[in-house]
Write a structure and sequence with these properties.
Chains A, B, C, D, E, F: InterPro entries: Ferritin-like, Ferritin-like_SF, Mn_catalase, Mn_catalase_dom. Chains A, B, C, D, E, F: Pfam families: Mn_catalase. The structure is a homohexamer of 193-residue chains. Chain A is built from nine helices and one strand; from the N terminus they run E-H-H-H-H-H-H-H-H-H. In chain A, helix 1 packs antiparallel against helix 4 and helix 4 runs antiparallel to helix 8. The mean pLDDT of chain A is 95.
């Protein structure tokens, strides 16, 4: 179980409202390579990951991704602050307003609802941990795309912080994959099939 | 942000492995009215719920639903314990095994991946809180269906505990709706349109 | 069975073509809280709603929502009248044109196809009727958002008429819920689980 | 707009409860080639079908498909009559029960929610009417599959009636296609591109 | 099995980068009536199409549609050439950039992921071949829409070439349908049901 | 473009009809980690993979996966040979029969339609190649699950052959990732953000 603590892992600031950036940033809230996807993939895998250290890592990183989801959510809300309906319409981003006003929803920038089809889990520790490393690499790349889509130095700071965390997670998943493979003693099940 | 605490909110026990029940119980893991859906709906709504007490309630209940998701996950794993591939095939539940072995995934009993299309959020406090009350009523009904689909008294105990919690949540959301309406002073925005 | 009558429930007029508003208004044609969703939810629930008055209400309201769907469809077509491909491209709304020309399709403003995942039905009269009240509240809120996204007084008139109808439906579903609860005599099934 | 008339287009009878057949028959309720899909495709296309007779035909057939949807719904309910939860579980069809009890939902026999992605509409009268002819041929084929999956002569009677109607619709759509092509005077737009 | 040959079926040229057209043209890459949909529908149907000539035709046309998919992919890449992130943002098409940079993905112009729900296959040769004729008619109509959405004569040339091929495919599927019906000797199975 | 050659990459044999295995094996035809998913992911990535050797590898492996898709398709058809409707119903696998007779469709064993949401492509060579390695590891694991779900030695032979190919592909993608990283000279873009 989880305890909620009312402070953000990173103090998400913005220099000015920027609704178009809000609409793009939602990629990391409800997109295929975003924080919800990461959190849900790791927290789901832990139930059958037999290696204890790997399992603990999945819980730790999964829980941190929930905190990142919160950072993204707060940032998007600040980027949307004070936007009126007709402004949203002028900017070409009123599709979101119609359904959710200036609130959030688990969608990607094109407005597609988040789906568990984005996630990977086959119940094989090598395959699953490799999927996690790939997930972190993709999240990193999407953060890089987002950094190139804003001029706001404060938003860039937040995005750089989150990008760094993905690199750390990728490194830790690589260690876990090494441990898992060691434990399997050079893949005994290689010979089984 | 959240802190993970390594103990379950309820000590989920089962009397015996029951893979068919596992396949049905997954409704509360990844189904349209399950715990993931509840957690995600409330945690998403909090970002734009202006009433402070209602917002806090959304965080509290959303966080508890994550704990319930964990209870369901642990129970499913126990119900699947020791099941071999050919047994799964005999029981007609190998569709899940092929893709996820005896692990979990965010699907409903028919194997459909969870989607945010299940969730409701329009950014209107009255509409959103009413959606939450409805969500709790549906979760209650699904728990009642599940109770009638097992003879295992330990599984039934867990399901009854979770059903009770949904009733509590529904009651608290009704209070919040009352407060929101009071605050709006008998719906001033009624006259606005 | 249904008989079609060739006149609209409300004389849907527009002051001028407004293709961007057409693209937003489609929320009530094929969106998660739109008229198709309402019609389909109620007409589906009637098959197992045991209370006779509630069942009749579901048929009546469901049938009226089909009429509203028609009003929305006619309005969108008027808002798109005379729009040429290159104009659609200039306005940033040609994504729809490519696939459907100036016709309609069951999508939300972001172009997502309508899905029954939007609908709620668990076969419990209390839960289902509560889901319907919530559906009407959300439809009302979306109409309010749409009213704020246009300056055309004729379109606003139609939207206000439809919004009013949602309030009436919500009130009638609340009555039905009261009747259902009375009939259950303070929820006997409360003690069953 | 539509007027509801409280009698079925065909007196749908069943000889005995047959929950497995109910689960298969739902193909014609919420499946890709079922009655909802047919009704929604035709009623959507009418908004931009310029030929008056073709447009009227779309309304007529679309409205009749709604009546067929009702026939299917009533039949499924009869096939499920009296089924208890544990029976549903024994029969391997409890996935539906968990989410919807013995009620209906717009799904195919595998439990996938209906989606407008099944529908075809490109705003070109020749292409759209051809899509409708194909839709009727598929519906016919699915009825033939269903007839071969039951021994109940009363259910077969209903299915044969509905299959016959699809043949009639296909014939009328072929006539409409002929008229549309005539009107285009051997496809003037052939030379346009 | 297939052998890849490193040249295009048609020399896809563009006069200038046109990222908005790229975003629309993706309809024929990952949209419901695009080349992937065509290829996948025909290659899937061949496995149970009993008439030998019809089966061979499905393989031939399916394989050609893969070549068309390649032509579309190359054209989109040329239309996106040299586009910088901030330019994409200015043009209102950065939603794609965030997730895929200037690469491709199987989506329609609204950004919806391709799904096999677009495809038709019921295992009845008449119904399936009719579905294919309809698919070609729709593809033709979408090419016509695209031609009207660009002023670039080179892009129009490619689109006209592909449109012509769809007309050829439609004609060949009509011949195959005729052969299939002949073989069935005026539909013996008409009397079977 | 591709040339079709009318022989299979591996002579797919089966010892006996086994419709339940057919229903499970479809995981590799239309499932999230199946051959269609692999082929489509690699063939899509090649359009923007700048390293020439990596790009050629994507085309080669993507084309081979299409051949594997064909092997799976042929095997499923053999496993379904001679199955009558009522047999399918008895075996609990008639959901597929209703919609597709004994033909194929791009679904997973639970009957969910294939979606491009399964695929990964962010336009970053390191992230994309890592995603491919993970895809191959998952495909391997799913083949291992399938091998454990059949006793037919001929089907096992085919599955082992295909599993071996995935290991070869994984190894080649690892080489390509190494080359890509070398070329980036220890990730210059690491310092860019």
């Amino acid at each position: 179980m989880w305890i909620y603590e009312a402070n953000l892992e990173y103090d998400a600031k913005v220099s000015y409202a920027d609704p178009r950036m809000a609409q793009l940033l939602i990629a990391q809230y409800g997109g295929p390579n975003g924080e919800l996807a990461a959190a849900m993939q790791y927290l789901n895998q832990r139930f059958d990951m037999e290696n204890k250290r790997a399992r603990q890592l999945l819980v730790d990183v999964g829980t941190e991704e929930l905190a990142h989801l919160e950072i993204i959510g707060v940032t998007i809300r600040k980027l949307l602050k004070g936007i009126k309906p007709m402004q949203a319409r002028e900017l070409g981003i009123a599709s979101h307003y119609v359904e959710h006003e200036n609130g959030l929803f688990y969608v990607n920038p094109s407005g597609n609802s988040w789906t568990a089809d984005y996630l990977k889990h086959v119940g094989d520790p090598v395959a699953d941990m490799t999927s996690n490393i790939a997930a972190e690499e993709r999240a990193r790349a999407v953060y890089e795309h987002l950094i190139s889509l804003t001029d706001d130095p404060l938003v860039q700071d937040t995005l750089r912080f989150l990008r760094e965390r993905e690199l750390v997670h990728a490194a830790r998943f690589k260690e876990a994959l090494y441990i898992i493979k060691e434990e399997m003693n050079t893949r005994k099940n290689f010979y089984q099939y």
